[in-house]
Amino acid sequence: MTSTIERGAATAEVRRVPPTSKKPAPDRPARGRRPGLLGTSNGRKAVMAVTGAVLVLFLIGHMLGNLKIFLGAESFNSYAEWLRTVGEPAVPGRALLTITEIGLVAAVVLHMWSAVSLARRARRARPVKYAARRRSQAGGYVVHTMRYGGVVILLFVIWHLLDLTFGTVNPKGFHATPYDRVVAGFDPSRWWVTAFYIAALVMVGLHLRHGMWSAFQTLGLANGRRRHLLRGFAAGFAAVLVLGFLSVPIAVMIGVVK
Ligand code: HEM
C-alpha cells in the first residue's frame, strides 16, 4: 500500500510495512508516572534548540574574531591574547575562557544527547515503518546530512583543536603565535588540510541551515508567508557564516595572508 505524507513543504512516497514488534518503547514512562521535562520530546527539543543557539553564538563570535587576521598579525594575536586574559584582574587569567570552554563542551554533549535520544525515540515509537522513496527535505538526505555531518563536524573540531589551539599537528607547534599557526596550518603545501576544512565547513553550513529551519518549525514560526522568509534567512545566514570562515584558509592559500 502506498500513501503520501506531508511534512511542511516536503512530500515523501511511502510503502506501509506491518510493524515487526508490539513491544512498547523502552523509554516510555511507566503507567501513572509523569516524565520530567527532560523525559519529554518537547523538553529534549528545547535542549537541542537552546544548546544549538549557544553554539551558533559561539560560531558568530569566532568567525568575526577570525576576520581580524585581515588586519594583520598584531591585531589577530592581540585579539587571541585578549580572549585569554578577558576579565583580569577581577578574575584570574583565563578564568572566563575556561568557563566558556566548559560551557561549549556541555552544549556540544547535550546537543548530541538530545539529537540521538530524539532520533531513537522517533524510531521506536513509529508504529508503521517506512520503505520510503523520499524526494525532498523530509527524506534521507536531511537525516544523513545531520547525522553524518554531525560526526564530521566533531572530527573536524578535534583536528582543529590539535592544529590551531594545541599545535600538536601544526608545523609551528604550540609555542608559535596564533597568527603563525594559522599561516603555517593552511600553507599551500598542506592543501589537504584546507580541503578538509572546506568539506567540514560545508557540513557546518548544511547542519546550521537545517537546524535553524527545524527550530523555526518547532517554535511554530514557519507559517504562511513567513515560511519562505525564514527558510531563506536560515540558508543566507549559514552561507554568510561559512564564507566568513572560509575566507581565512583561502586567503592563506592564495597568499593574501602570509
Ligand atoms: C577556517 C575556519 C576557522 C579558523 C581559521 C579557526 C581558527 C581558530 C584559531 C586560530 C583558534 C585558536 C585560538 C587561540 O588559541 O588563541 C581556534 C580555536 C577554536 N575553534 Fe576555530 N577556526 C575556524 C573554524 C572553526 C569552526 C567551524 C569551529 C566549530 C565548529 C571552531 C571551533 C573552535 C574551538 C572550539 C576552538 C577552541 C576555543 C578555545 O577554547 O580556546 N573553529 N580556531
Automatic annotation (TrEMBL):
Keyword Membrane attributed: yes
Membrane spanning stretches: 46-65, 95-119, 140-162, 191-208, 229-257
Top-level taxon: Bacteria
Gene3D superfamilies named in the record: Fumarate reductase/succinate dehydrogenase, transmembrane subunit
Coiled coil (UniProt feature): none
GO CC entries: membrane
Organism: Sphaerisporangium album
Sorted UniProt keywords: Membrane, Transmembrane, Transmembrane helix
Cross-referenced InterPro entries: Cytochrome_b-558, SQR/QFR_C/D
Protein name as annotated: Succinate dehydrogenase
Residue ranges, annotated region (Disordered): 1-39
